[in-house]
Amino acid sequence: MAPVCLRDCKAWQDAGMSLSTTSNEACKLFDATLHQYVTWTNDKTLGGIEGCLKKIKEADPNFVMGHVISNGLELIGIGRSPIIDPEFRKELNVMSDLAKTQPLSEWEELHVAALETFAKGNLPKAAEMWDWILLDHPLDLLAIKLAHDSYFYLGQQTQMRDSISRILPYWTATTPLSSYVKGMYSFGLLETNFYDQALKVASEALTVDPKDSWSVHTIAHVYEMKAKIQEGLTFMEQTESNWKEGDMLACHVYWHWALYFIEKGEYEAALTLYDKYIAPMCLASGSMLDIVDNSSLLHRLQMEGVDVGKRWDALVGVTRKHTDDHVLIFNDLHFLMSSLGSGDREMTERLLRSLQELSKSLLIERDVLRPNSPLTERLMRKASAVHTLV
């Protein structure tokens, strides 16, 4: 699904978000990348997100916001960490250096600063900074989506809902991608237990664009939370042709479909979805969302007493390279599921050792920030005792 109209330099200026480049091509490719990020879909006619990012740098290597969206997608994808990835650190440094050598708008400077903050590990502060941007630029879709995803990772449901609700009045029905913003709002409503409102808003968004997989995702959650399993299964079957091409989220939606079957005790049906869609998508993409979905589903089935056979073995081949990432503890726990499930003792021990070292580093950092804290001393003693036992 190609974007209908990609904005050039003047169109971005008219929208109140001037981009510091004279390349219309770079501006349009920036818009194309943003469109795909928001719609969870790689547009093959544009070369997908990776293709667009490559073309942006070819059109204008010094385009700061081109570097911002490239690095932002890497960070929010939580598959790479600048702490252990020197090449990624270099890419972030290039962005920062470029930002210092050319005049930027305050809007652009804030985007750079937010990413630098995120890269240093302070995601809560970065999310706040994107919300600051939205106070003056409520139509800034990049800030909207980065804030939304950040609050999702942080488990800050109220902020995720209210971040969208504050800017929603500025989005009219004729604003491109407004239904996707409404879909984000529906998920915030869901996460704050307004299930009926979430269902209503998500359904309205799907009326505008049935391919909106994030709104589909909201409805999948609603039916699960209200234990309307048959309604959920029917919804999945009736809408599959709409969302299955949304390659960045389809695996997760299939995962929700499988959860309905697990709820009903229909384990073979869940395994069929796993083998036909969920596992192949993960092996093809290697994306973090797909990885945690695969780990979680196999673990849930095992907890139900289901023999998943050798399925862990293929998955651990994907998770092993992330053993030392430690971007989110949520991810680490899913890596641990895969290593334990496959019986990979070496990976399990390496992951646990790595987490132990991380915990020590965090406590040392706490000691620097709060010197002579009795709580830090107690935590260090407890950590040492646990590490000795392990």
| C-alpha-based Rg, rounded | 22 Å
Strand and helix order: HHHHHHHHHHHHHHHHHHHH
The N- to C-terminal Cα distance equals 52 Å
Low-confidence stretches: none
Structural description of this entry:
By secondary structure, the chain is mainly alpha-helical. It has a domain at 1-120. It contains 20 helices and no strands. The chain has helices at residues 9-14, 24-39, 48-59, 64-76, 86-100, 106-119, 123-136, 141-154, 157-167, 178-191, 195-208, 213-225, 229-243, 250-264, 267-285, 288-303, 311-319, 329-342, 345-369, 374-389. α2 runs parallel beside α4, α4 (64-76) packs parallel to α6 (106-119) and α9 (157-167) runs antiparallel to α10. It starts with 8 loop residues before the first helix and ends with a helix. Keywords: Repeat, TPR repeat. Belongs to the TTC38 family. It comes from Engystomops pustulosus. This is Tetratricopeptide repeat protein 38.
